[in-house]
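Hey, can you fold this one?
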Amino acid sequence: MMMPKNTFLLIPLLFVYCCQTTPVEEDLYFRLRTEIYPNEGGSIALKDGLYKSNTLRTIHAKPNDGWVFDRWEGIIAGMNNPTDIIFYGDHDIRAVFVKDTFNIRTLAGGKGKGFGMNQFNYPTGIAYDQEENLYVSDMHNHRVQKWMKGATVGITVAGGNDYGRAANQLNEPGKIAVDPLGTLYIADTENHRIQKWYNGASEGETVAGGNGAGPNLNQLDTPYGIALNNDGLLYVSEIDNHRIVRWDHGAKEGVVVAGGNGRGMNADQLAYPMGIAVDKNNNLYVADTYNHRVQLWTPGAKEGITLLSAQNSELQSFNYFTGITIDQSNKLYLSDYENRRIVEFDIENKKLKIVAGGNEDGDGPNQFSHPFQLISKTNDFILVADAKNNRIQKWKLEE
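Sure. Predicted structure:
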């Protein structure tokens, strides 16, 4: 049988047509160019270079010591730091820093009461990590916020899922501590437990209490103050048990290290203690709140030693110590709650002075309203959780 003329041409032509492929569309990339002004002011934690189209990235300006982030300029403009950018085109961005010449400034919050990322609702606890990122216990928002160094907005790193007792929830968190690895320890006050949140975790782990409110050693009753010693052992102040307990690694029960003998003002008693600090020698300093005094409990002691009280003060009477910290020079800093001030007490020479506030209740830059926890990162400034003003204040200390 003879094939129709020119039929043989169909086979190669059909083969060529079937094997043709649609060209793959190449990915688009856009360039990020950043500038820092002035050069010594800080750095940007997002590298210059090419980024794929439609990619969402976070850009963060980190001020150097002695500088403060001021604003973004260029393709993004504003004062939110960190902030997100989407690569729809090339980005030219400048981070502007200014000299930190402020004696007093708001380090976080100060935007009114609220649930926004730049707001708080009664912040009571603060802590610093090794990179000087700030952590804030946002009590009535039932969350802990992380403010990266130089940030003007926070990131929720624990809780924030309404109040409750699930592993991803908190209920009126009090004070907090952070270890060298960035692990958070949270006094989950109304859940009567201490929650440990690893860096980046979506849930917490109960490491103390969690067995309901009560006086037994496997229980906590309204835990509020919290501290870690150099070995990472956990100290907790229990407001309604009038005691301080230490929880060792993996322990199922705590060990009473101060108080625990009912409410009172004897040497072996405490009254609603709210703040604690531990020094390098494991000496325990207690803000004995309702006794208006500071008690020193040495390791193994059965009684406390009064370092400071309303009865022996050279200043006006103290009125509820709520927070306490100790710095590298063996100085104590205390939040004198009802007097709306912070006092410094030099343990070595017994000198006492007001270093912040003391200007009546208010929201002015030199005032406090409900000062709770405070910390001293270095010897030249303190940070104060100014709860009712919903802000964290940084005060430079005078020489």
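The longest helix spans residues 10-19. Let me know if you want another pass with a different chain boundary.
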